[in-house]
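Hi P.,

Sorry for the delay on this. The queue was packed all week, but I finally got your sequence through. Input first:
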Amino acid sequence: MRGISGLAVALCLWAASAAADPKLAPVFAPQGELRAVINTGNAVLARRVEGQPATGVSVDLVNELAKRLGVSVRQVVVPAAAMAVDAIRQGNADVGFFAIDPARSEGISFSPPYVSIAGAYAVPQNSPITRMEEVDRPGIRIVVGRNSAYDLFLSRQIKTATLVRTQTSQSVVLQLFEQKFEVAANVRQQLEADVAKYPGALRLLPGDFMTIHQAMGLAGGRDPAGLAFLTAFVEDMKSSGFVRDALKRHGIAGASVSAPGMPK
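Then the structure:
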């Protein structure tokens, strides 16, 4: 891991596995509480019932982090990844949960990934498109959530088709139907839910066009000890089975715990 020695990581891994470390609390929570931006636009990570706090894997992780730091949590709930990024960059949150992408590196320091999920395509049931290789062609319009991980990825990869962006990931399939677009791109779990929601109207294309590595992010400019601690914390959450158990507890299928030691 860049800028962090093996010894420092080992020491921080010990600290992350121990009880609360109040010395690091001001690094993570300079206002006295840990402001965590929670993106409910990705159902793999978090969900929210109106009027209730968000729940999910990301919420479980930040609650455990706050417990070890000896601080309370204040949720900053947003419906889209772009809003989560803005919350960190604008100083309205201390930590968040993001797909690792070079376009998001400004103002956010990433931990190693804790969960890996797939990006997939869906098309209307009567579409002539049957394979991923048929998507990047003239006249094909791909609907994506603006500034989502797959939007950033496809913006670099798609050469011929046109990307059409919606405000949130949840509205991708709705726009596909309303505007008669050709392809929807989203997290596989969201598209599977949409297929079930619109029986006989939508189908998934075989395969995944990308693997999305989800990480925790700390607001940039903080003491490097904070990122070292967060790195060790995430590795501990994976190796201890915490992430695996959280996925099971929240009924998340199809996502996998990221391998230990994966680079940021």
